Amino acid sequence: MLVKIHASRPIGGTITAPPSKSMAHRAVLCAALAKGSSHITNLEFSKDISATLAAAGQLCAKVDIGADDAVVEGLGHFLSLTAPVDCCESGSTLRFLIPLASLTGQPVTFTGRGRLMERPQSVYETLFRQQGLGFQSSPAGLRVEGALPAGDYTLAGDVSSQFISGLLFALPLLSGDSRLHLVPPVESRSYIDMTRSVQQTFGVQSRWLDDTTLWIPGGQSYQPRDYTVEGDYSQAAFPAVLGAVCGGVTLTGLSPETLQGDAAILDILRRCGAKFTVTAEGITFEKAPLQGVDIDLADCPDLGPVLMVLGLLCQGTTVIRNAQRLRLKESDRIAAMEEELRACGGVLESQGGTIRVTGCAHRLHAPAAPLHGHNDHRVVMSLAVLALCTGLPLTVDEAESIQKSWPRFFEAVKPLGAEVEYVG
Predict the structure, then answer these.
(1) CA-to-CA distance for 308 and 381, rounded, in angstroms?
(2) Has 296 been annotated as catalytic?
(3) 250: left (phi over 0), alpha (psi -120 to 50) or beta
């Protein structure tokens, strides 16, 4: 899908953050593992969340989907699988389910779309093979067989936290206690604690023994609960950057008490000089001059693409560090954003996981050819923010990739002054 987006009037208005995709994944799985009925409200049926709901229905639950909610009835046992589990493009779905699949007593095959089967699973592969279990991975799919036992596991702390969360979902169901030893540095700790928080709501406990060791008691069971998904800071980052640059934007639907690591977007914008006020009604941004700063993405990698856009619109230089995991997402997000922003006149360079962005708002322009969305929802939404911040009419292909996380993104930004034209 080809979309042309530009500002039809001065930017301003109110936008509500969509439900947190990260929290929704976790709530759906906890509900599916509980025996009984759980009602999950404030859901956005993106492709990623739909994949987790469908997988839950295949593995251990009955799922009844409403307009913006779902009733998940955990069966208390695993079902016999007659088809592969399709994770679409959702890395969370796949990595959360692999350890659980090992407990089903049957071989389980996972399939996916896009780059999903190219994304590294070596952490699990090592753990499975150390235990003498089956783990076979190919571009066509991934097959696991055999049960991971309770006990001590050692993982690198600077890999995706999704591997750690996957083990946290499965290990409490085993009869024995387990420990996860994380080799420092431990990145994305907030995502680990998000998993633990949702599990606690559903009656499953774990705790940090020290900064790098998690203790997971065995013999636990998930309990059905009603759960309301909070707003998503990773998605809110797009209108937040727009508001910081242009002013006049009020962002609602976010919890100030969140565990989401991407809530760091507010501190980053504040350090850049953004002016905003936080009230019970929401976060309201005023227009202010912005200055480039040094940003550490270790705990909030999903902010990377839109922060590269922000860097172009700040004065001076923005340095983004610990961004290496962006290269292993739906696209190589560093390379993708460099390519598209340079096509608009942007000045930026990268080496490994460090990106340097030079403020150059004065030289940005709309290229003659459409920009490439790289089949990546965060790339497409970041380029849309660039169009709205600068007033440039930008055309972006593969815009349908927003279905992965925020299907109503283009409709959501229209009240802010966005003109969205579907041209092919």
Answers:
(1) 12
(2) no
(3) beta
Determine the Cα–Cα distance for residues 256 and 352; give it in Å rounded to an integer.
Answer: 33
Give the torsion sign (CA, 139, 142, 143, 148). Answer: positive
| Cβ within 8 Å of residue 179, ≥6 positions away | 151, 152, 153, 209, 213, 214, 215, 216
Cα three-residue angle 416-420-421, rounded to 5 degrees: 165
Q: Which residues pair with 61 in a beta bridge?
A: 74
In tens digits, what is the pLDDT along the chain, a chain of 424 residues?
A: 999 999 999 999 999 999 999 999 999 999 999 999 999 999 999 999 999 999 999 999 999 999 999 999 999 999 999 999 999 999 999 999 999 999 999 999 999 999 999 999 999 999 999 999 999 999 889 999 999 999 999 999 998 999 999 999 999 999 999 999 999 999 899 999 999 999 999 999 999 999 999 999 999 999 999 999 999 999 999 999 999 999 999 999 999 999 999 999 999 999 999 999 999 999 999 999 999 999 999 999 999 999 999 999 999 999 999 999 999 999 999 999 999 999 999 999 999 999 999 999 999 999 999 999 999 999 999 999 999 999 999 999 999 999 999 999 999 999 999 999 998 7
Cα–Cα dist 196/24, whole Å: 13
Amino acid residing at 59: L
Cα separations in angstroms, 84 against 13, 49, 144, 394: 45, 18, 11, 40
- How far apart are the two ends of the chain, measured CA to CA in Å? 6
In contact, 65 and 256? CB cutoff 8 Å: no
Q: CA 263 → CA 138, 218, 241, distances in Å?
A: 36, 32, 13
Angle between helices 377-390 and 333-343 (to 10 degrees): 30
Which one is catalytic: 232, 302, 376, 397? Answer: 302
CA–CA distance, 1 with 424 (Å, rounded to integer)? 6
Q: What is the CA radius of gyration of the chain?
A: 21
